[in-house]
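Q: Here's a chain of 109 amino acids. Please give me its 3D structure as tokens.
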Amino acid sequence: MKQNNSFVTFVMDQLRGVGAVSCRAMFGGYAIYCDAKVVALICDDQLFVKPTAIGKEMIENPVQKPPYPGAKPYFLIENELEDGERLCELIRATAKELPAPKPKKKKRV
């Protein structure tokens, strides 16, 4: 799953209005974080947003597809990529609906 860095840069530029958003390389793709929650993945130069009830309402005819083999289906974002404001709204709403991340266990020495 080699990524095109220009696609990752484009997506992150579109999301600059979200606020606390970051991107981290993971498993050959990228995880997008908002408010310390994984809200989306970039795999094979495609954007996948975690499925939520509000996301389903916001995306016109949402297509669900796994971002990589063996993964649960996510919303594949295609038409919304060019509209940065709408994409930011989707990411903010998704982050708001997702539960807080579980605290990490401390390593034993």
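Q: Can you summarize the key feature?
A: The radius of gyration is 14 Å.
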